[in-house]
């Protein structure tokens, strides 16, 4: 059975009072361990799709099933917990919390899960070393470069060993060399940790390097 | 077309006009009801139209009255009643026509038409009857619990059966303070619990349900109690005396006001319960832990920094200007030093200088930081003002109480009519009552006192010098030169030489002008002693040893030309100073025996008692009466004897407290603004936290904790500065004009409970203030803040 299934999902957003139907009955299956890229024109609804997939936004109609369980029929607190345990996000901007150091930022999901600070920090430190930032654990986001911050954000997404990693143009703000480093990290994560990953991107080379490619156009998702 | 696609439309002119017409109808009904007395008075006073179902109740009443009124022959009744009802109904009809369905929109069906409904929306219910029940029932239950507990624990039983009933039940007659405290705390807990249960069941705040519940189920009780205050027959009918409903009632002398305060407190507890329930349940589970929430909140506001706290404390203690000057001097010096350093660094290593400059910039504070400091200061000022003013007022009250109780007894035992001839026996019995530590018999009367220089009306008291010291401070209050013991040995009032040299000679030299012969060789005239107050001595222009005449209009003597007022000469044996102008100018003391002779009293007027604990005086005096066998004996405690004075003082203190709380409310407004600014500033972070899996309840907790931090910091600062100021007033003193205030310096008395209450109220208000912004924060959609910039 598929890890994630999307069944007949509808979703619109509103621009200047006009309704734009970006997802029109999308259905899709994602298996465990897959590494998927998704491309599409700007405004086609890639981010919206990812938000619905990551339970950040509820669809107007349709269902998202995780392991056969309908995610949106849970209550708010359960959905928040599901998001905390199961899904890791990386966004175009790093979205680190500015008041906290890199280490604290990475450990935050574990703290939200009410894990003890000691082990949480230990694992966060290990992850930061793994993404090559072992020397910058006590720096705040303002003191990190874009590539460094994005690597911290990736470490934060991985700290609870989620089943699914959702990345929304993770290299959109980075230069090609730095971006390639992030891509390599994503591939490593998928291969070494077995984390299912969906990467939304504009970068054709990156998209082609992924085993499965999706295209979002006209409110429908197709294999590319 | 699907009916759900049509929206409700309100035509406001119709609604307003309808409301107006209904109001006119309600007034007509009210007038009609008032015309026909009976329950009319009650219903009119109810003002229940305000609550909502008043109109209905009134029309029922009116119907009942209309039937009875014809018998009674009320003229205006029926016609106005019918007219009022019709107008009232017409008004509601107008309102009903003002609400209608709007026409459908022309948009066609969407591509998703017919797809299964999103499950959470399918489960959505917008009104919870059980929650309404929990809130309304909870507050009603809390009120009943308060009344019942108060009744059971203290003397709340119908007052005319008071003594007997308490005896019969074997007596949970706790002191009123404790009884009220227990009843109040338990009812607050009930109210809190019902709010908690209601909110955690509904999984949302459900304020509409809470409002309706409080208004329809909670409000009638205080309204009924207020009515009982107005309509004594209602109290009699229910066999309940309002004074006993709350302890506060007796304290401030306004029972209904006291009960409204209690009601407000219960509603507050309910709101707190609802809020806590909502956070706890979030949307399903009870989780009151504060782990990362506090972590995040502390980083956001960072109130507990020494610089901020010390700065705010300095402002509270020394005003705004001096600390500001010191701050600028320090900052100026610091900046100068830092700039010099950076420049020196720059000469050696320009890049190091650049990063040093960057660090300096990081030190600069955001506007939110300033707002936070201001809010802390605001709460601090409020708490400080509350503590200082209440402490000074308590000081005045304590001073007054001490002076009154120094001169007067804590309780007085007497008979309803007549004197106490057998006061010795009564004193033997009273002695056995636990809590009585001193007693003395007395006779009291009103007389005129005249010296050569002046005349004044005074209250004269016959006292027993041996025991009077065990009840009042009179012996200590005698100024040097006089002596209480001289009452019993009047011969010693004048120094023996003075008797011989002064008055003795004068007497000896006195010649009878008619007979022209010296009267008998002078023996010093020994007059009974009298003790007078300092002010009276000044106005009579007498000193110790002078002679005064006491004239009693009662008990006339038969003179040659008919009855003349009884008059007797006394010699001033001492002057006392109690510190109360009223007493120092109005009281004189003579020996009990002299008073018995003068006023022809057998025994004494009554017995003055001193009790161990003055707050327990009422209970002990009740017990004394019981020991004495009740009627015809009675005992009145100091609170009863000076009721007007002390209830006025307490009411004044309460009003001052409420007025000063306005400062705290203003500060709370500041906190609302600050936390809203924080929410706006942290919109993106809120979204990120939600994406990381923080539930709505967690976000609420974070921002509540932020508001609460400001409140706690402000409260603690206010507490410290308030106490410091009180200590300053106490030790250094602020001089007062003794001619005006009769007290040399501003008195201060720090009451721990009252002080703690000021801080707790401040923290509570700030907590309440941050509820709204916190809810606002939790309603930020995660997607909103995550849109790419």
CATH class of chain A: Alpha Beta
CATH architecture of chain A: 3-Layer(aba) Sandwich
Number of helices of chain A: 7
DSSP helical segment count of chain B: 33
Termini gap of chain B: 41 Å
Helix content of chain A: 25-40%
Indicate the structural class of chain B: alpha+beta
Q: N- to C-terminal separation of chain A?
A: 23 Å
What fraction, in percent, of the residue positions of chain B are helical?
55-70%
The chain-level mean pLDDT of chain B equals 75
Beta content of chain A comes to: 25-35%
Domain count of chain A, please report it. 1
Radius of gyration of chain A: 17 Å
Instruction: Give the DSSP E fraction of chain B (strand runs of 2 or more residues).
Output: 5-15%
**Coarse morphology of chain B:** extended
GO cellular component, one term (chain B): plasma membrane protein complex
Membrane topology (chain B): Multi-pass membrane protein
Subcellular location (chain B): Cell membrane
InterPro entries (chain B): ABC3_permease_C, Lipoprotein-release_system, MacB_PCD
Task: Describe, in short, the structure shown.
With 224 residues, chain A is of the alpha/beta class. Chain A is built from seven helices and ten strands. Chain A has a single domain (4-223), classed as Rossmann fold.
Furnish the topology, listing elements before pairings.
The complex is a heterodimer of chains A (about 220) and B (about 800).
Chain A: E1 4-15, E2 18-30, E3 35-39, H1 46-53, E4 61-66, E5 69-70, H2 76-86, E6 87-90, H3 102-112, H4 117-130, H5 146-158, E7 164-168, H6 176-193, E8 196-200, H7 204-208, E9 212-217, E10 220-223
Parallel strand pairs in A: 3-8, 3-9, 6-7, 7-8
Antiparallel strand pairs in A: 1-2, 1-4, 4-5, 9-10
Helix pairs in contact in A: 3-4, 3-5, 5-6
Chain B: E1 8-10, H1 12-35, H2 39-46, H3 54-72, H4 77-98, E2 99-101, H5 119-122, H6 129-153, H7 162-168, H8 176-202, H9 207-218, H10 220-230, H11 232-238, H12 247-252, H13 255-281, H14 292-301, H15 306-318, H16 321-348, H17 350-363, H18 367-407, E3 411-415, H19 423-431, E4 436-450, E5 455-463, H20 465-468, H21 474-477, H22 496-509, E6 529-533, H23 534-540, E7 547-559, E8 562-576, H24 581-586, E9 587-591, H25 592-599, E10 606-611, H26 617-628, E11 633-637, H27 638-641, H28 643-681, H29 683-691, H30 696-731, H31 738-741, H32 752-778, H33 782-786
Parallel strand pairs in B: 5-9, 6-8
Antiparallel strand pairs in B: 1-2, 3-10, 3-11, 4-5, 4-7, 4-10, 6-9, 7-8
Subcellular location (chain B): Cell membrane
Family (chain B): Belongs to the ABC-4 integral membrane protein family. LolC/E subfamily.
Membrane topology (chain B): Multi-pass membrane protein
